[in-house]
Automatic annotation (TrEMBL):
Keyword annotations of the record: Transferase
Name of the protein in its database record: Glycosyl transferase
GO MF terms, alphabetically ordered: transferase activity
Organism: Halomonas binhaiensis
Domain of life: Bacteria
């Protein structure tokens, strides 16, 4: 059972009573009459061929309160898009698929490219960004949730708890982050969050002193979770990274734009498992190796905007401080795992920490060598300023793909 601790920075919604999904959904149906609710699903076509997404769609088909489901489909040709239309047709809710590789959306992307506004990297960030533009253009929702499509332990109670804080008409939350324990097959998972982000934030605080931004990030129980919800209006002004820094980037943007009393997190699952990324120690372009690099760079860029000065010597100090804190945390996680009857490979944990420590330096060098890097996708506010008709064109293109010939 969850605890009831509040750390005072953002509100924490706990799972104190294991309230039934039917009760939550009854509330949400009432809320939805005043605040129409939606869902974004960023997906690769390959996920349509796995077991997780099919089970997720079966669960979503039972959800009674959603006004719209928006699916971002990446890496799909024409036949695969047609397959996806049939795959998602069992959803009774109004739903639309963004065929991101289709000719209509590619043409819009070319318009953005001419203005220097197109996302420069493929991936989840780009997918979510286009879905966000469509959600705003459709005007069907006031609040929207987002979750991944590879959740193996999914049930619709996860979505109900995730969207509840931004759906309740008496609450004033603009953004909500989901959290959960990463446990599967008797093992403690979530290495990047446990072994990289947490000790890195604490090392940065030790070196650079107390900063509200670092305290804010450190209050999230699972800052790298792919599940969050927000008022639709929030999507308008945020700039998100196109790389693996998406989750940290979103947290940074909502912190910049909103008071912390409008931000919250919620316990959404007792068990959560999804596709595990390999460490890829020998390949810095993929897996946890790439993820840790992108996250570190996202943090450095944000801290630089707050006046923190970095240097090669400072990054060496950061690496040493982080390394010691991370090793101490391995001991803590090991003891926690033992008490709960879970296994933890301490050798693999220390190997991961060594990789992450090296990547803090690599990310630091990249940051210093390329200070003009523009990793953020422009906000939709900026897109409308440069191309006022583009959101409406995006909406029309998606409608034609979903209802017309392709």
């Amino acid at each position: 059972m969850s605890d009831f601790h509040q750390n005072g920075i953002i509100t924490d919604f706990h799972n104190l009573t294991r309230r039934s999904v039917e009760e939550l959904e009854a509330d949400l149906c009432r809320f939805a009459r005043r605040r129409p609710l939606g869902l974004i699903l960023p997906s690769l076509f390959s996920e349509l061929e796995g077991h997780a997404l099919s089970a997720i769609v079966d669960e979503l088909a039972k959800v009674p309160y959603l006004a719209e489901i928006v699916i971002g489909l990446d890496q799909a040709d024409r036949d695969q898009f047609l397959f996806a239309r049939d795959f998602f047709s069992r959803l009774p809710q109004h739903h639309r698929i963004l065929w991101n590789d289709g000719p209509r959306l590619r043409a819009l992307d070319a318009e953005l490219e001419e203005k220097g506004l197109s996302p420069q990297q493929p991936g989840k960030g780009r997918n979510v960004w286009y879905c966000s533009g469509y959600v705003q253009a459709s005007h069907r929702t006031v609040a929207v949730a987002l979750h991944d499509c590879d959740i193996l332990t999914y049930d619709r109670g996860l979505l109900a708890r995730l969207i509840y804080p931004v759906a309740h008409p008496r609450f004033n939350y603009a953004f909500c982050k989901g959290y959960y324990p990463r446990i599967a097959e008797g093992k403690l998972n979530g290495r990047v969050s446990r072994l990289m982000v947490t000790p890195l934030l604490r090392a940065l605080k030790m070196i650079h002193g107390p900063l509200p931004y670092l305290d804010y990030l450190d209050c999230y129980r699972y800052p790298l979770s792919g599940e969050f919800s927000m008022r639709t209006e929030v999507l308008d002004g945020i700039r998100i990274p196109a790389d693996w820094g998406l989750e940290i980037g979103v947290l940074s943007e909502v912190h910049r734009d909103h008071s912390t009393n409008r931000l919250c997190q919620v316990d959404i699952a007792d068990h959560y498992d999804h596709k595990h990324q390999p460490v890829s120690a020998d390949n810095a372009t993929t897996g946890l190796n790439r993820m840790s690099l992108d996250i570190a760079k996202a943090l450095y860029r944000k801290l630089a905007t707050q006046g923190v000065q970095f240097s090669a010597e400072g990054f060496r100090t950061l690496k040493a401080t982080y390394y010691r804190l991370a090793l101490d945390l391995i001991e803590t996680y090991d003891h926690d795992a033992v008490m709960n009857g879970l296994s933890l490979d301490r050798h693999a944990e220390e190997q991961a920490v060594e990789l992450f420590a090296d990547n803090l330096m690599a990310a630091g060098n990249a940051f210093l060598e390329n200070p003009r890097e523009k990793p953020f996708i422009p906000s939709w506010n900026r897109v409308r300023a440069a191309l006022p008709d583009l959101p409406e064109c995006l909406y029309a293109a998606v409608e034609e793909d979903n209802e017309g010939k392709v």
